[in-house]
Amino acid sequence: MNGSAKAVVSALAACGLLLAVSQTLAQSPGSTGVVKHKDYFYAEIAKAPEKARARRNPLESDRDAVAAGSNLFAQHCAECHGDSADGGRKGPSLRVPEIQGAADGALFWLLTNGVVRRGMPVWSKLPEPQRWQLVAFIKSLGARSPDVK
After folding, report:
1. Structural domain boundaries of the chain?
2. Cα dihedral 66, 71, 75, 80 in deg (nearest 10)
3. What is the pLDDT of residue 9?
């Protein structure tokens, strides 16, 4: 076997070993593979600055804000997050405790800044009252178990 063939065989063996180890770890009883994947999507909410978190939704007691937010969600968000916000082909569920338990200000901050590297657009050009309406709608959804669709 020549040098380049040995290198190819070694690289394939290393890839096979990495694949086997990762599958074993993912299937182990205490595996947190799903949690890490979930954390991947919801970690951005934790990055909201304290000043942003402290902001209260000025529309939180306005029932019309939830209806308006529902319309905005259908126009701008459902394509990625799904019609019922349970998650879609691009965006994660917005009904999980990580989102439902987040401060209104943190959600507003996330809408304003987006998560561009993960495909969520920046919505800073959407007027501020409309972003708060979206927050009101999202919070009105309530938490749902991840296995319920």
Report:
1. 1-31, 33-141
2. 50
3. 44
CA distance 86 to 106: 20
Query: Hunting for tokens 């402290």 — which residue is that?
Result: 54
Q: How many helices (H) and strands (E) does the chain have?
A: 8, 0
Residues 106/48, Cβ–Cβ less than 8 Å: yes
* Whole-number Å distance between alpha carbons of 85 and 76: 12
Residue 5 is predicted with a pLDDT of 58
Length of the chain: 149
Distance CA 85, CA 92 (A): 8
Query: Considering Cα of 127, then 128, then 133, then 139, what sign does the dihedral take?
Result: positive
Task: Note whether 109 and 44 are within 8 A (CB).
Answer: no
CA distance 81 to 84: 8
**Amino acid 42: pLDDT:** 86
- Domain 33-141: give its CATH code: 1.10.760.10
pLDDT at 143 (0 to 100): 77
So what's the pLDDT on residue 146?
A: 55
Residues of the chain with pLDDT under 50: 8-9, 11-37, 148-149
